[in-house]
Amino acid sequence: MRLVRERFGFLTLIHSMRAFLKLVKSGQGEASIRRWVDEMQHYLPAASMDVSIKQKLLKESIDRDIAPALMMAAAGGKFFVAVRLPHAWRRFLKSKGVRLHPVSLALWPVEVLQRFRQGLRTYRTLMANRQEPEIVPHAVLYGIHDTSFTATLAGKEAQDFLSWSRAFFSLPKEWVVPFSGRILPPTSRTAVTPLPFPGLSFSACAEFSRAAKKEILRALMGICAGRWQRAYMLSDRIEAAYAAQVPREHLAKIYAFTNAAYIYRPLWTYEVERRGAEVAMCFYAMNTFDMRLAAGGDIGYAPGYAAMTWPVIYTQHENHREFLKGVVEAKTDIRVCGLMPYEDNGASADLSGKVKILYLDVQPFRPAFMAGIGRPCHIYTEDVSERTFREVCGAAGKAGAALYIKPKRFVGNRLSIPYRRMLEDAEKAGLARIVDSGISARRLCAVADIVLCQPFTSAALFAAEAGKPVAYYDAPGLFTKSQPASYGVPVLRGYTELEQWIAEAMHVSEAAA
Q1: Using CA atoms, how far apart are residues 59 and 309, in angstroms rounded to an integer?
Q2: CA atoms of 281 and 312, how far apart (whole Å)
Q3: 219 and 244: one domain?
Q4: Which of 75, 102, 238, 392 is the 20 to 30 Å CA partner of 256?
């Protein structure tokens, strides 16, 4: 209840779940939210909003405020929503039929003041930075989680983002720094969003202090005059002022980000780019196309791509490159770099059995969690995922193959409870074996004989790369067989097609052996 009240203001759990389930049933929720968010990017006054403010607002507000509010409006809810958004975006939401609670007028000034306080904490923390530059890194990989590269750091053979980066950018092992920095909420106890820079000399620190104090004074004057932009971005502006004082010889050659925070490009990256460092975003996700529905229409991709301003984007496939060229409005150099693994804990990937079928399972989140972030996902629902698993399990058993389930990622208590129980029961009955979610899908595909995936996870391309029979299984027949989201991987619709395809794939696999 507390989570729902924080996300939706004064709405109740019943109201939010009713709206969520209504949109899931209609199949239009995701497409509507994407269209509205793309429209919101151009709704703020150009004179008072630079692109970085728009990016940060979108990054931090889509799941927290925008998507839940638009979800309620699209579902026809007749109740109030409390949001923390500037006046222009509140006006936009009203134009879409969202009934905003009067408390929203007070929430935004409070948000701005919290951002101002966060900027002060950032200034104090950076002034205290005395880290010596022991070795200047060739590359800083920014925004990846610690669990994604533990195997590579330990010297194990792994297929993760860190090992890929070292190979792709031709970097010495000791000159690559993984950096799990992230945008922090203004109420965070952590003082500052981490920066991958050493401490400054006395003269450079004095210059930074002068620049930061000017930013603080301008932000304070803006608050007094009713202008919130500088106060909202104070922490980011202070970080950029710090980056401006870091000697060029202490900057890395490459600052590479993942698409985990694809919309927002930090202000300090403009400074390091201006001084000669490469700034790039490595777009490892590929299931971003409009997914064509068999009943007509499509399910839209995630919102916000149009706001990206990365100078270089690396992507895995030519089709995805063309997609990004069509949605990114800024001038961007989009390069195809081949398949890009993300996480690998280095655990053993040995699979046993005469014929080994690997099922790459996206897994459904709990409906209450999805309702809390306003994302009415229509693909990986409990019903669809349970039906898909049962039919894959039945077809594998009928074919006499050993079935291995590879969860896409560890989701903890966000996983649907009935689905978790179903997996546990299947493993206890010997119908399937659950593989550690932290093992790289690339390594597992290399040792499996046959690979099945839920539509349209990009991990299927690792199986195609390894020359293994691979297909997307669409149990309820939601999607058309031909669409760009499949990247040429066949789409199976219904149990009959699944059985036939597994029989053919087993014949091909046995012939290859």
Answers
A1: 13
A2: 6
A3: yes
A4: 238
